[in-house]
Amino acid sequence: MKSHNVAVIGCGIWGKNVVRNFYNLGALNTVCDLDAENRKNLKEQYPDINIISDYNEVLANPEIDAVAVVTPSHTHYKIVKMAIEAGKHVYVEKPISTVASEAKSLAEIAEKNNKVLLVGHLLMYHPAVNRLKMLIAEGVLGEIKYVQSDRLNINYFKNDRSVMWDLAPHDVSMTSYILGKEPVRVISAVGASSDSNDIMDITHLTIEYEDGIIVHISDSWIHPQKRVNLLVRGTKASAIFDDTLMENKLQIFESSSPKVSKNEVLDYIEIEPLKLECQHFLHCIEQGKPARSDGHNGFNVVKVLEEAEKIMLGEKVKALDNVNFALSRSKK
């Protein structure tokens, strides 16, 4: 593979993992971060890498041909657009944007400029998820009827406007990928804030996919016990993918009758998904091919979540109107 010079913009909790992987792949040239303490630690850890504070230096550097944007989601559109227009290929952490029109625009700008745009839908690169996708395509589970994805954890750094925008991009992109089908409509979407503010830290989505497949997605920032679990129910068998397990993450439960149940543990090569995602990005640049999780994939995910958020906020307003109506009647 041809050597590429990658700059990572943003080196927070997840950005450090992106830096590590591009460095280990021999592609890291520069890291850009606003935090002085972060820059100091990075310089000690990677003394041969350029460590800077201004991303405009990255955009102006002709030696850098690719950029990884690992900044808060509300900054993605501006930075990604500038990077592509500066002639860089771009890897951007999910979501590509929190506005569907912006996501669509970025996909179109990348195509127009003939640049690779990869959205960090990490689970599309997970070995167990790819094994599950193969099983579904081969008909091992039969006709898929229902999918449930639970992504529950504790998060004390709530820097997105809701847990849905932080975690649900994984659920929606993974589900579309393994099924090979697209969402048709959002049936319901509810959210709640445990802190009684505008940041929803618990959300539940129900989405109808093509062929009438129902998908339920639960995400939480307040769950003290981490749970990362995917259930795919078919007419022949069910698959469970549990990413919290150290081994046997993917299991198949056959159920041909109420009295017969056979559990099969599936083998696959275990490689860090982020390493595979970073390798894929570099390979796409080398081959001039679109990424598996390209800008259009990113747009499709944002479109669903944007619709879900409208439903959540609409239900919140509707509930408030009902309360006001009840109060007005009680005063008469």
Principal-axis shape? globular
Largest sheet: 8 strands, mixed
CA distance, first residue to last residue: 77 Å
Provide the CATH topology of the largest domain: Dihydrodipicolinate Reductase, domain 2
Number of strands: 14
Number of domains: 2
The oligomeric status of these chains comes to single chain
> Which strand order do you get reading across the main beta sheet?
8-9-10-7-11-12-13-14
What's the Cα radius of gyration?
21 Å
Order of helices and strands: EHEHEHEHEHEHEHEEEEEEEHH
Low-confidence stretches: 323-332
Strand-pairing-aware structural class: alpha/beta
Characterization of the model:
The chain is of the alpha/beta class. The protein has helices at 15-24, 36-45, 55-60, 76-85, 100-112, 127-137, 163-179, 273-287, 295-330; strands at 6-9, 28-32, 50-52, 66-69, 89-93, 117-120, 144-154, 183-192, 202-209, 214-220, 222-234, 237-242, 250-257, 260-265. The strands form two sheets. An eight-stranded mixed beta sheet has the order 8-9-10-7-11-12-13-14.
Summarize the structure.
The chain has helices at residues 15-24, 36-45, 55-60, 76-85, 100-112, 127-137, 163-179, 273-287, 295-330, and strands at 6-9, 28-32, 50-52, 66-69, 89-93, 117-120, 144-154, 183-192, 202-209, 214-220, 222-234, 237-242, 250-257, 260-265. By secondary structure, it is an alpha/beta fold.
Helices and strands in order, then pairings?
Elements: E1 6-9, H1 15-24, E2 28-32, H2 36-45, E3 50-52, H3 55-60, E4 66-69, H4 76-85, E5 89-93, H5 100-112, E6 117-120, H6 127-137, E7 144-154, H7 163-179, E8 183-192, E9 202-209, E10 214-220, E11 222-234, E12 237-242, E13 250-257, E14 260-265, H8 273-287, H9 295-330
Parallel strand pairs: 1-2, 1-4, 2-3, 4-5, 5-6, 7-10
Antiparallel strand pairs: 7-11, 8-9, 9-10, 11-12, 12-13, 13-14
